[in-house]
Amino acid sequence: MDQTLQVRQAAADLVAAFASNDTTRYFACFSEDASFLFHTLPQPLLSRRAYQEVWAGWQAEGFAVLGCESSNGQVSLQGEVAIFMHDVATRIRLAGEEHALSERETIVFRKQGERWLACHEHLSAISPA
Asked: Are 8 and 75 in contact (CB under 8 A)?
């Protein structure tokens, strides 16, 4: 399979796991040394484990992903690294209330064996026009 298609499939798998609120499957899409930069947090998370701890805290407070749709996906191959950029429309439940989010995301994938695993994720708010 073409590497661009492999990266697109890896991104689709990650989004599908997130959209279905499947914690185990979602975190399996990331390398252990992955880093995360989210506009909703005051500082970067420097490992998958750090993100898992934050995620568990969110879930304890009633957080759940209700759905997520990816659009406008672009892939840039850089050797053993690929950059995937897209827009995401996410529905979440937080403290009993549903919220709709429109964000832009960059996910950096690194080829590990035959798999492309996410090694960095940057989520940002879409600025109003």
From this structure: yes
Look up the domain containing 75 and give its range. Answer: 3-125
Which residue type, as a one-letter code, is found at position 45? L
In this structure, the number of other CB atoms found within 10 A of the CB of residue 107 comes to: 25
Q: How many domains does the chain have?
A: 1
pLDDT in tens, 59-79: 999 999 999 999 999 999 999
Q: How far apart are CA 82 and CA 74, in angstroms?
A: 10
The reported pTM is 0.94
- Average pLDDT score over the chain: 95
CATH code of residue 24: 3.10.450.50
Cβ contacts of residue 13 below 8 Å, gap of 6+?
25, 29
